[in-house]
Backbone:
């Protein structure tokens, strides 16, 4: 056969298996060109039947994956049909191999693939069947530069899924709009995802997130009816507001957690702070409030005393009118090593520092209710250039008494209070006068 024709024109020659191959194809106005050699007894089971040839097409689509031009070498015998193709689409070019078995028994191989090039993930998500589509559900991208290989098997009626032999490996990079678990990212370089033995794992060594740089390692495994996610995440140099706005959409977070983060972003939208974040945690993918783990967050910004979580602490300190230089209670760096236990975040060593003073604190935050309970201690640091007063006690006397400050209530509008009331702190000074 040589000339312009549709593959479906010869459906009746080869039986239902041939017809089923083309169910997901849609051809445009220009009919494909082909040159084929077909031979054998196609009605006899197990006979030596072959098809070999070349196909060239223009506008067409496969499972909604639009192709502007393609050329393919097709080989078919009594065992399988294989295709080696070069596909051009609006985002670039893709080269690869596909193979389909002639007969697929229960639990047998449905499809094998090996390709590289530009893959328009969002448009081509369905191209490799519902299983691969499900595995890629957490990733979105207009176009990926990728290398991929794997085999898709029909699952048996196995509740545990242990008989599923489906596996795939994908290397991906992109400089276009993309997202991981619904979190928008600027770029992904050197990413790697694999699926085998019911475990999905991945490593992303370079992710552009919140105008900073992040790395991510994860494994996702089905255990006792839940999908367990175990991950390590490290972010450096991100803009605080941009980063928090991005992760407020994160799919693993519960609606309550997403709302909590979104409310915080709205309350501090003019922040110019930089944030570093490191976290390692594990829990059910569908409920972030059940995760446990550890981490560390570092925030650098002038005017940190304005942050809601601090309960207006600088204003309270300045109101005491201590004989200290102006700005003694301004803070620029916040560091919080923490541990995550379900809906509670605990920290035993919160450190808030500025040019002349620092707060050391410990406490907890409830991610559901937003309630905080933090106790802090105030200290002076560095060399203070303070004019000589009548005697040094005028500085030293009140300071130890206000070292303990408690911050409590809801994080949106917390309150700060001195463990020792102000009237008791200042009364000795009044007596001195």
Residues:
């Amino acid at each position: 056969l040589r000339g312009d024709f549709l593959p479906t024109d010869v459906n009746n020659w080869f039986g239902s298996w041939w017809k089923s191959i083309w169910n997901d194809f849609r051809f445009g106005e220009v009919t494909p060109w082909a040159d084929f050699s077909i031979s054998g007894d196609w009605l006899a089971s197990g006979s030596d039947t072959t098809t070999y040839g070349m196909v060239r097409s223009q506008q067409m689509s496969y499972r909604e994956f639009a192709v502007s031009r393609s050329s393919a070498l097709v080989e078919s015998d009594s065992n399988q049909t294989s295709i080696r193709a070069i596909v051009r689409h609006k985002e670039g070019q893709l080269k690869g191999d596909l193979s389909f078995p002639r007969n697929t028994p229960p639990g047998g191989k449905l499809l094998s693939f090996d390709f590289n090039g530009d893959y328009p993930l969002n448009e081509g998500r369905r191209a490799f069947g519902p299983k691969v589509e499900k595995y890629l559900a957490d990733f979105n991208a207009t176009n990926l530069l990728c290398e991929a290989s794997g085999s898709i098997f029909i699952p048996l009626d196995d509740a545990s899924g242990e008989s599923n032999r489906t596996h795939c490996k994908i290397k991906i990079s992109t400089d276009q709009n993309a997202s991981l678990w619904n979190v928008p990212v600027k770029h992904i370089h050197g990413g790697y995802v694999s699926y085998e033995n019911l475990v999905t794992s991945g490593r992303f060594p370079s992710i552009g997130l919140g105008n900073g740089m992040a790395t991510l390692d994860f494994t996702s495994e089905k255990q006792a009816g839940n999908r367990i996610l175990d991950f390590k995440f490290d972010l450096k140099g991100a803009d605080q507001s941009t980063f928090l706005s991005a992760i407020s959409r994160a799919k693993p977070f519960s609606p309550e957690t997403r709302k909590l983060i979104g409310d915080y972003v709205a309350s501090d939208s003019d922040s110019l702070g930089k944030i570093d974040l490191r976290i390692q945690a594990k829990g059910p993918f569908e409920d972030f409030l059940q995760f446990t783990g550890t981490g560390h967050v570092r925030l650098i910004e002038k005017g940190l005393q304005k942050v809601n979580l601090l309960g207006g602490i600088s204003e309270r300190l300045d109101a005491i009118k201590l004989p200290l230089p102006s700005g003694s209670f301004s803070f620029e760096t916040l560091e919080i090593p923490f541990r995550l236990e379900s809906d509670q975040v605990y920290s035993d060593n919160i450190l808030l520092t500025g040019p002349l003073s620092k707060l050391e604190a410990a406490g907890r935050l409830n991610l559901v209710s937003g309630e905080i309970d933090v106790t802090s201690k105030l200290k002076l640091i560095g060399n203070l250039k303070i004019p000589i007063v009548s005697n040094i006690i005028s500085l030293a006397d009140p300071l130890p008494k206000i070292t303990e400050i408690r911050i409590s209530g809801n994080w949106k509008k917390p309150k700060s209070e001195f463990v020792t009331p102000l009237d008791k702190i200042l009364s000795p000074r009044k007596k001195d006068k």
Q: What stands out?
A: Residues 382-398, 429-433 have pLDDT under 50 and may be disordered. The longest strand covers residues 226-239. The CA atoms of residues 2 and 35 lie 4 Å apart.
